[in-house]
Write a structure and sequence with these properties.
3 helices; mainly alpha; flat; 76% helix
Length: 76
């Protein structure tokens, strides 16, 4: 389990550094903050999965949100 946590942390660290290199220089603080805030829920959810915490499935929540729209469009 500890190895999985270390590998997950290393993967997210590499991803963050990669995303920072894609941002234009000088580093815009707003874009860096938004990028970090978008990555934070994925990081928290991933740690929960590694630690075997019972987590809800986000796909079912998205299906419940968009099902009325799909029905109106004749897709569901």
């Amino acid at each position: 389990m500890w190895l999985n946590l270390i590998l997950l942390s290393a993967a997210y660290t590499a991803l963050i550094f990669y995303q920072i290199t894609l941002l234009p220089r000088p580093l815009p603080r707003r874009e860096a903050l938004i990028s970090a805030l978008l990555l934070l829920p994925a990081l928290i959810y991933s740690y929960g999965l590694v630690l075997d915490v019972s987590l809800p499935n986000p796909s079912s929540a998205l299906e419940n949100i968009f099902m009325p729209l799909a029905r109106k469009l004749g897709l569901g």
